[in-house]
Design a protein that fits this description.
By secondary structure, the chain is α+β, with helices and mostly antiparallel strands. Strand 6 and strand 7 form a beta hairpin. The chain is globular, with a radius of gyration of 16 Å. This is Quercetin dioxygenase-like cupin family protein. Keywords: Dioxygenase, Oxidoreductase.
Length: about 170
């Protein structure tokens, strides 16, 4: 169980809990994330009912959202509304430090714990069927917090391009 000051590590990344669901009556979770240099984008994903707000404290963070890539630098803040597909990484050569708030908290703390601890311990990095089943189970358990943007491009306002029928 997380508390203010808890720290999780995985693959060169680190998050420290600054606020928890318990300290905010479920209103939010805030972490300070340190992203390792030369990262790559994770799969595009969205949060069905949570808003994420990021403030870059040090370094820079590349964000893919609304059909474009943008790099945010120290002192800049951006928000990811619910249901908007996005992905982000630190593509620079130096660590990036980001304050990251999720509202409402829901079970985001437990999701972070499962993702960081199980990835660190090797279960989430397994290739083949074992890794696929672990990731599918994680997404199923935390489907109210995160879902992959299946079949969606990271497109303006989370909309999918409409198919055009030949005339």
């Amino acid at each position: 169980m997380t508390h203010v000051g808890s720290v999780l590590y995985s693959q060169g990344n680190r998050i420290e809990f600054l606020e928890t669901a318990g300290t905010t009556n479920g209103a939010r979770v805030t972490v300070r994330a340190v992203y390792a240099p030369h990262g790559t984008y994770p799969p595009a994903h969205l949060h069905p009912s949570q808003t994420e707000t990021f403030t870059v404290v040090q370094g820079e963070l590349r964000v893919r959202m609304h059909g474009q890539d943008r790099t945010y630098k120290a002192g800049e803040t951006f928000r990811v509304p619910p249901r908007v597909p996005h992905a982000m990484c630190n593509a620079s050569g130096a660590p990036a430090v980001v304050n990251w708030t999720v509202e409402p908290a829901l079970r985001r703390e437990a999701f972070f714990e499962a993702l960081y601890v199980e990835t660190r311990d090797g279960r989430g990095r397994s290739s083949g069927l074992k890794g696929l089943l672990w990731r599918a189970g994680l997404l199923w358990r935390f489907r109210d917090e995160v879902t992959l943007a299946w079949g969606r491009r990271i497109h303006p306002h989370g909309e999918r391009p409409k198919a055009v029928r030949p005339s």
